[in-house]
Amino acid sequence: MLYGQGKYRYELVDGWAKLPQGESFFDVGGVCVDARDRVYVLSRGTYPITIFDRDGTLVNSWGKGLFGRAHGSCAGPENTIFCTDDRKHTVRRFTPEGTVLMTLGSEDKPSDSGYREARDLFERIASITRGGGPFNRPTGVALSPTGEIYISDGYGNAQIHRFSAKGEYKSSWGGPGPGPSQFRLPHNLWVDKSSRVWVADRENSRIQIFREDGKFITQWTDLIRPTDVFIDNNDTVYVTELCMRVSIFTLDGELLTRWGNEGHAAESPLFLAPHTITGDSRGDLYIGEVSMTHAKVDRGGRALQKFARKA
Q1: Quick check: bond before 210 cis, omega within 30?
Q2: Burial level of 24, CB count in 10 A (0-12/13-18/19+)?
Q3: Which residue among 70, 91, 98, 158 is least crowded, i.e. fewest CB within 10 A of its CB?
Q4: C-alpha span between 240 and 101 (Å, rounded)
Q5: At 204, is the secondary structure helix, strand, or coil?
Q6: 67, 85 contact by CB (below 8 A)
Q7: How far apart are CA 52 and CA 59, in angstroms?
Q8: pLDDT < 50: residue spans in the chain
């Protein structure tokens, strides 16, 4: 079965991730690809970091006991990886072998945004009364073309933070609300070739686009609870949406294609909770889900699915 249309058609590679017997991703918080097309999966399994070659063979795994709750990731220079921990309130940079090179934030010391814990998501979001600065449950991380570090601080805050490539704090913007430059759960982000910052503003069901200094440019609203945004080298924009679909756009916002659970039986859907997306040098896509957290379903290795681009 093919998904998408036109130049953007994909085939699901069934059982791509070859996990050891008995292991599961449970939830995939982040996924990114390095310069060698190795796929780094940030999950909530036994080993939060698992690294695969493009054929799905496990290359390495590490991180047991290291994360409070793994959430978002991005590839860094020299095949390093940045990861957010939304329970420990930190963002760390690791070598491919798991050595910590940089830590942003103070572990277990959240900033003061008014946030309070509650069972209901919307009650938690409503408790955020102000921007608190770095960090209160950070969600996503992205790098600019010059190496600056941008972090979406979403579950316990409503801001975007900007750091230098060396990890020096530069600025923050945002606050709770539905207006321009406000957020209701900034869930992940991407920085394009022009250093524009694209933010998946999940509970406002939109993507907001900013200049590198945080000045609002525009927003896209043809989305339902977007969770992640990825832009490839051809300036094609890929978005995962928690409503169980993926959408592909031009850089100007023209919808190219989207797909979800259409054609799948209710007991075996294609998606349960799309959470993160990336692509490799051949145009293949990798989509991770938080199926355990969102739907209480353990999909094992299928919490990360590969879609191979068809010519």
Answers
A1: no
A2: middle
A3: 98
A4: 30
A5: helix
A6: yes
A7: 5
A8: none
